[in-house]
Amino acid sequence: MNEELTNRMLAVVEVTTARPDRPVYHAKVQVLNSRVVSEAKAGGWSVTRVAAADVTPAELLRRTVDADAVVIVGGEDISPNYYGGTTGYEGETVHFASADEGQIALVQRALALGTPLLGICRGLQIINVALGGTLVQHIDDGIHKNIDVPIDQILSTHDVTLAAGSTIAAVLGGVDISVQSAHHQIVDGLGAGLVAAAHAPDGLIEALEHGSAPIVGVQWHPEAPDSPADQLALLLAGLAAQHDARTRVEARITSALVA
Predict the structure, then answer these.
(1) pLDDT tens figures, 150-187
(2) What is the DSSP string of 56-122?
(3) Above 80 in pLDDT, residue 74?
(4) How do beta strands 205-210 and 194-199 pair?
(5) Residue 252 reports pLDDT greater than 70
(6) Identified catalytic residue from 184, 210, 221, 243
(7) For 126, phi and psi rounded to 5 degrees?
(8) Catalytic annotation on 3?
(9) From the CB of residue 132, how many other CB atoms can be counted at a distance below 10 Å?
(10) Cα 45 to the chain's mean position, in Å?
(11) Per the CB 3.0–4.6 Å rule, which of 82, 143, 222, 243 could disulfide with 232?
(12) What is the C-alpha separation between 244 and 246, in angstroms, rounded?
């Protein structure tokens, strides 16, 4: 295990720790989120896990201020008022506006400070909205989510083509991969500085990344138990590599100033 990595802290930011009205959905989300935590710990990260809806936006920023990298995981739809949408759309879920506000602020701070950040499913959408992008509020039934099935069968397996030369293609070691997803919203207009980094066979955006900052989002679930075994580990390793690069640059700048 990399000794340097054992001293690094990863903030895993979820929506909420309690959904008493939706226990089956909550249990599924907890399986996914817990796998991010366990995989990160296995890779040597020290992990702090925070639910954005359970604290104020200011407290979320305070509790993650020392994080060397951030993962924003999946959950409910983002409140439409954050991207100019309307309520009452098909498939609309419960909204957690305080979680949206806190996670949006977290992305904006990561961009300002150069903190590596990975968004998963909702996390990708938070990245896009935080940088001024918009969302398609509902997509027709297709390859992105299994419908009319028990929650444990909701994840759909499909192919994704990564953009050649993209950060995520370098991290995952190729351009043609298989993923599992379960979403009904997608990126519409891209946020400032973001580029599409992957597409599904139907042409919809499946990943995005920032042109100059270490920010990446994937619309699928690499943390799903049946996803390719190395996908999540590679994405977490990508955060480590981005942090390493940032640290080396900062060390060179400090050395030059001292000299």
Answers:
(1) 998 999 999 999 999 999 999 999 999 999 999 999 99
(2) -HHHHHHHTTT-SEEEE---SPPPGGGTT--SS-TT-----HHHHHHHHHHHHHHHHHT--EEEETH
(3) yes
(4) antiparallel
(5) no
(6) 221
(7) -60, -45
(8) no
(9) 14
(10) 17
(11) 222
(12) 5
Residue whose structure tokens are 């049946």: 226
Work out the pLDDT band at 67, boundaries 50, 70, 90: very high
* Structure-token pair, residue 198: 């992957």
Structure tokens at 15: 């929506």
Is residue 144 among the annotated active site residues?
no
- Whether the model pTM is above 0.90: yes
Distances in Å between the alpha carbon of 131 and those of 7, 13, 108, 190, 213? 30, 18, 7, 8, 12
What tokens were used for 224?
């799903």
Using CA of residue 129, residue 131, residue 136, residue 141, what is the dihedral sign? negative
Question: Which pLDDT band, with edges at 50, 70 and 90, does 3 fall under?
Answer: very low
Helical (H) or strand (E) element with 157 = strand 156-162
Of 14, 39, 101, 121, the catalytic one is: 121
Question: Residue 74, exposed/middle/buried by CB under 10 A (0-12, 13-18, 19+)?
Answer: buried
> What tens digit of pLDDT does each residue of 189-240 get?
999 999 999 999 999 999 999 999 999 999 999 999 999 989 999 999 999 9
Backbone dihedral angles phi then psi of residue 99, each to the nearest 5 degrees? -65, -40
Q: Rounded to 5 degrees, what are φ and ψ at 33?
A: -65, -40
For 122-150, the pLDDT digits (tens) are: 999 999 999 999 999 999 877 999 988 99
184 noted as active-site residue: no
Q: Is the pLDDT of residue 246 over 80?
A: no
Query: From CA 74, how far away is CA 182, in angstroms rounded?
Result: 10
